[in-house]
Amino acid sequence: MSFAEDIRVIFERDPAAANLLEVLLTYPGLHALLLHRLAHAMHRRGVPVVPRLISHLSRWVTGIEIHPGATIGRRFFIDHGMGVVIGETSEIGDDVTLYQGVTLGGTGKEKGKRHPTLGNDVMVGVGAKVLGAVTIGDHARVGAGAVVLSDVPPHATAVGVPAKVVVFREPDGSSRRVEHLPDPELDMISALHRRIEELTDRVGLLERLLREQGSGERVSDGTSPTDNRSSIGPARVGRTLREDR
Ligand SMILES: CC(C)(COP(=O)(O)OP(=O)(O)OC[C@H]1O[C@@H](n2cnc3c(N)ncnc32)[C@H](O)[C@@H]1OP(=O)(O)O)[C@@H](O)C(=O)NCCC(=O)NCCS
Question: CB-based contacts of 1: which residues, under 8 Å, 6+ apart?
Answer without folding.
Answer: 37, 74
